[in-house]
Write a structure and sequence with these properties.
The complex is a heterodimer of chains A (about 130) and B (about 375). By secondary structure, chain A is an alpha+beta fold. Helix content of chain A is about 45%, strand content about 20%. Chain A has a single domain, classed as Sufe protein. Chain: A, CATH 3.90.1010.10. Chain A has a three-stranded antiparallel β-sheet. The radius of gyration of chain A is 14 Å and the shape is globular. Chain B has a seven-stranded mixed β-sheet, with helices on both faces. In chain B, β3, α4 and β4 form a beta-alpha-beta unit. The longest helix of chain B is centred in the last third of the chain and has 39 residues. Chains A and B meet through α1, β2, β3 and α2 of A and α8 and α10 of B.
Chain lengths: ~130, ~375
Amino acid sequence: MSQPGYSEKVMDHFMNPRNVGVIEDPDGYGKVGNPTCGDVMEMFIRVKDDRIEDIKFRTFGCGAAIATSSMTTEMALGKTVEEGMKITRQDVAGELGGLPPNKMHCSNLAADALHMAIEDYRNKAAGQKG
Amino acid sequence: MKRIYMDHAATTPLAPEVLEAMIPYFSKRYGNPSSLHSFGREAREAVDDARTEVAALLNAEPSEIYFTSGGTESDNLAIKGIARKNKKKGRHIITSSIEHPAVLEVCKALTREGFEVTYLPVTSEGLVEIGAVEEAVREDTILISVMHANNEIGTIQPLEEIGRLAGEKEIYFHTDGVQTAGKIPVDVNSLGLDAFSLSGHKLYGPKGAGALYIRKGVRIESIQQGGGHERGLRSGTENVPGIVGLGKAARIAEENMAEESERVRSLRDRIKEFVLNEIEDSWLNGHPVKRLPSNLNFGFKYIEGESLLLYLDAKGVAASTGSACSSKKLAASHVLSAIGLSPVESHGSLRMTLGMANTEEDADYACRAIFDSVKRLREMSAMRPE
């Protein structure tokens, strides 16, 4: 019944994705991917005292793309931005119980979107201080 | 949970009467058709009866039907067998760019044997134009292979026109009829065909059984060597239960075709109207009229096909997609590319192929499932109207 190669946890995050949506005026925003390749992800973060207090995503893509986005938001929520930057695609894929080999690039994108949102937050914060 | 199968272009369930017809040939009537004793004779008779049924479905002679293991083998045998046997006459083959891999990959393999292949383009509705065939024909063209109806978008090709041209130019004409045999009328004579491939499991028959029609007098050689079964063209002990099942399925298909194709067509149109009217930014891939009665191929903006397929699957509706994300090679469907869809457009494709078991209630349930799934996936999509 599930896609060959998708673990139960992937299917759960895909069918019941966590933290879907947008944050108005986010502290950080990242968008990665390319519609031609089939995956576009955007992440929004709200940061308080350097901690990711809220996180939302929107994803255009396959089951793995949606599941990794959802998983990444769950892993990042409550972490410091420093810790968030250290979340790797391997971490995301591992947390999901693995991904089919030809879908590994999806987890890459989700981690990238998170890192980009954190970079955006850091740039904004640096701008305010300056 | 309710489960609705709408992927009949992939495979069909075995008709109960077909199963019933097959069973004795696994157990009691297990003879080898090549044997001279009574066990062999009853198996031989069953194979001959099935040959007659398959021939009748195509308006062919029984002696022009060769049993194979399925559509892929039939395509291999027809194309390689004709090309190799006629290579002294020429080494040029014409096919279309939207063929099934069982044709495309065979043509590709033949180029390594010194053959040249022209891949005809198709219109945005998936039609091969006769003008393009005419232009492609060369002095050394020995074979044209154009499918009857496309497995993804359902477009039905103008075989009669191509057949006439092939006849005039004395070029052999093969068609992959895996999607049409038993679904729409096939008359190998009026279509001007020299070879026609079909598969049992696409017409409520068993997997592992297929047939190839070869017009009497066509120069063809076998592609596997052995005991010389099937009049020397296809060695290997006959798959008797499979062949019996194929014969039975062919007979049922012929009897029910007119009524069943109308029934399926009305279900298809019901889903088509709903989706195109109720779901924004959706469209139909393929030809509006020259189309298999069972085929739907939608495009949806802002969502990806594998996601949609799995959301539908969770609601019990089985369909398929031409999205790159669902393919092993992560490449968009060559058919959707050939009709001019961009990679983004082909990502959101959904194929639904209806069949015998589907009811009006199923169609309505599927419509609702598509509507809800598209809506949900669009809500979480990073792509949206500008």
